[in-house]
Each structure stands twice: as C-alpha cells, then as structure tokens.
Amino acid sequence: MKKIIILLLIFQFTFAQIPHLSGEISISIKNGTIESNLEYSNVPKIKNYSLWLNSGLNLRYLRDAEDKFNYPNIKYYDDEKSAEAFQYYIPDGDIKIRLLPEKFKINYVGKFPVISDTLKANNRGDWKGNIAFNGKSIRATEQSAWYPIIYDIDNDVVASKVTYDLTVNCTDCSTIYLNGSAPKKGDSVNFKSNQPISLLLFAGIFDFTKNKNTFFINTNLKPEQETVLSNWTDKIIKFYENNLRIPYGNHVTYLYTTPISKKNAWMFVTYPTVAIIGPEKYNVKSYFSDKTNELNDAANIEYFAHELGHYYFGTVIEPNSELRWIFLEGITEYLALQTIKEVLGENNYKRKIAEYLVEVKELNPKPLSIIKNNEISESYRYYYVPLLLTALEKEIGKEKVWNWLQTILKSDKTTKTDYAFFKSSIIKSGISENDFLKFETKYILTENAKENVIKVVK
Ligand SMILES: [Zn+2]
Q: 363 in a domain, yes or no?
C-alpha cells in the first residue's frame, strides 16, 4: 500500500511541474531571422525525453545553468512524432541514457525564407507548424517548435505549455504578440505569464483593438463587426459550457494574417488565440457585410464553432497515441456539428450531414479498433468521425454522448487516447458493456460498418 502511495506521489509530482522559459528572443521580419538565448527551469523529472526544436533552427549550445560548460547533445529526426522539429537529448555518459537537467541554458539561431511576394510563392505549403515570414510579420506556433519543447516519450506527452518571462526584440516590428499576454506596441517587449500556455508568436507591422474582453489582432474589423463576432463566440461558448460542464477558460483572441503560399486558407487554435489565415480576399472582414455588419453567411459560424471547440479537445485534454486525430479533430468537428444544430437550426444541420456524406464517398474506413494515427486521413477525421459519432448518438441518445465527452475531459492528463480508451471511457460514462459491443459490432468491426453508419445518420 505504501509503495503505491509513494509511486502515486512521484507520478503526480512529475506532471504537476510546469517548465518555465525565460530569456531573450531577437527576430527580424525583413531578414527572416530568429535568435534565442533562453533558460529552461523547473524542468520536470523525465528520464525518457527528447527536446524538440524546429529543423530550421541551429543549436549554438545547450549549457549548464551556471554557465560553466556545454552539454553534449544527440540529434535525430522522427517524423512520426514531429514533422517540424529535430529531437535532441543530452547523453548521460552512456549514449543510451538521457539526462534532463532541472535547469539549463539553450541558444540557437535560424534564418527562414521571407515570402512577401506571392507571385513566386508555392500554391500550397503553409500550415500551423510552419514558421511563416510574410514580409509584414512572423507567425510561429508551438507545433513548429520555434521554442524548445520537452517531450515525454513514455507517456506521449508534449509539454508545449510553459510559464514564461521572455523579452522579444524585433527592430523592424511595430507590434508584438505572445500568446497568453496582451499584444503590445513596441520593438522590444517583455512578456510574463504565470499560467502555463502554448507559445504562439506573432510580431510585425499591424494594429490591434480590444472590444470588451476580446483582442482583435490585425483583423481590421469595424467595432460593430467585432461585436457581432463576439456575440456569436459567446453563444457558442455558452453551448459548450452547458453541455460539457467545464467553464471555458480565458476570453479568446482573434488574429488574422496572410499565408506564405498562394492558396492556403484555414483556421487554427493555439488557445486562447483563434487564428484565421488566408489571402486578403479571405480576410476576416470578408466574412462580413459592409452595409449591415452582419455575417454574409451565418453558416461560416461552423468554422468558428470548430476552432472554439478545440479549447476542450486540444487544451483541456491533449489527445495523443493512435487515435490522436479522432479525439482531436473528429470529436471537435462533432461538437461543431452540434453547435450548428443548436444555433443555426435543423436545416443547416442536415446540410452539414449531407456535406460529410459527400466527403466520405470514396473513403474506405479502416476500423477504429485497428487504425493507426498516420492512417487517419482528413476525410476520416473531419467527416467520417462526426458521422460515426452521430451513429453512436442514434443508438444511445444524445445525453449519453455528452456524458461520454464529459468523461473524456475529466480523464487523467497522461491518458493515452487509443482504442482501449475509446472503449473504456464510453463504458465508464455509463453505457453498458453490452450496448457498447452492439455499437462496436455494427458500426466499427463489421465489413458493412460504413453502410450502417450512412443508413442511420440519414
Ligand atoms: Zn481542428
């Protein structure tokens, strides 16, 4: 018994510890450079770890906290874990043993293409994990590992959330924004956060406004339009809070910027920032009527509903393991679908279901029970999963699906979101094993699973 308690304490201690990042980051949006001189402290005691750093950044050194000696480091690449980053570790004498000091210094530098002229830009090739210099700004998210990120290999936990005391210098910027802090005018700004947060950096030449409690960064919306977007946001958040029974965290920040490719246009979340990326003609303003200041097409709310849903599936729990995409994108899209029904009504809901059905036409879905993370295509995660969960809803009732989602959100931080968890969490939420087996047989395991799903959701 004692042993169990001690183990439990160590276990909790390890993950209660939030790494702290301090130091200076110098960037130039004209030259596409990043130079960082940082110190990591309060580093969790993890034996089997790697340190992620974007593959375009060059390590000058990993150094001891007292600034006396450099650590040796081993560098490798594992695109199953991160396509964007190289992985490093400090060998502890033996090359196989990994040493992670409680405190260390890290210094690195990198230069990236500045793509201000979209004429010579690629058609596609911008994404959340890109470090994007578009001539007017830098955009970099935690997915890019533009700052060093500690990865716990055994638990499959990416510790991208840090507390920080960081000074960002950018002589060719007018404004700097670091996620978790308010945007600030100036070319050298110190940011501090005691709340652990994933770091999104957006610095350059742009303006921002504050409407009630929401920041609008580079969106150029009229105050009336900001209010319209804020009201929709409140409506969606209230719906999620009521059904998931977990209060939404901080107020969101809306951020708009252009991509470094010709055609990419998408949205993403690094909570609490909701970023809208797209060419000028798809900027946030383009969503609104210039005359009425209302949304041109209320159906656009579905994109915001999806992104806002990532507070729960993406921040409250951070899915990992074999069903990462199912829990991260599939469930979030299912949440957006419920929002559409609630705030836009039955017709829009039916239209959305019909859209999903078109998107999965060519899909030959591998059963959830054996699919691997890298086999979960976009049409699987964004369109098939919401249909599959709608089938679950038809069988067990909507209330029970919400109960299940609440159960997932209350699960331990180190939970692996794999098929065993999919099953155990459904049963834990109050569905009998027998009912689960019936659902599993009909909609997951049988050869006709897809046909059965399509039949029941129509
Ligand atoms: Zn998403």
A: yes
3-7, 285-289, 330-334: range with lowest mean pLDDT: 3-7
Neighbours of ion ligand 1 (CB under 5 A): 329
Instruction: Give tens-digit pLDDT for 328-347.
Output: 999 999 999 999 999 999 99
- The per-residue pLDDT for range 162-221, each reduced to its tens digit, is 999 999 999 999 999 999 999 999 999 999 999 999 999 999 999 999 998 899 999 999
Whole-number Å distance, alpha carbon 362 to ligand 1 midpoint, is 22
Question: How far is the centre of ligand 1, averaged over its atoms, from the C-alpha of 18 (Å)?
Answer: 25
Task: For residue 162, give Cα distances in angstroms to 16, 19, 70, 415, 419.
Answer: 12, 5, 24, 20, 29
- Which amino acid, 440? E
317 within domain boundaries: no
- Cα 302 to averaged position of ligand 1 atoms, centre (Å): 11
**Res 22: pLDDT:** 98
Ligand 1 center from residue 155 Cα (angstroms): 23
Separation of CA 176 and ligand 1 centre (Å) = 25
Taking the centre of ligand 1 as the mean of its atom positions, its distance from the CA of residue 325, in whole angstroms, is: 9
CA–centroid distance, residue 47 to ligand 1 (Å): 32
Question: Which residues are bridge partners to 91 per DSSP?
Answer: 98
Cα 271 to middle of ligand 1, angstroms: 12
In a domain, 406, yes or no: yes
- CA 351 to CA 328: how far, in whole Å? 23
Output the CA 2–ligand 1 centroid distance in Å.
Answer: 43
ipTM of predicted complex: 1.00
The owner of tokens 């183990």 is: 7
Query: Distance of alpha carbon 328 from its chain centroid, rounded?
Result: 8
DSSP type of residue 251:
P
The answer to the question of residue 174 being in a domain is: yes
Give the domain range for residue 296. Answer: 211-309
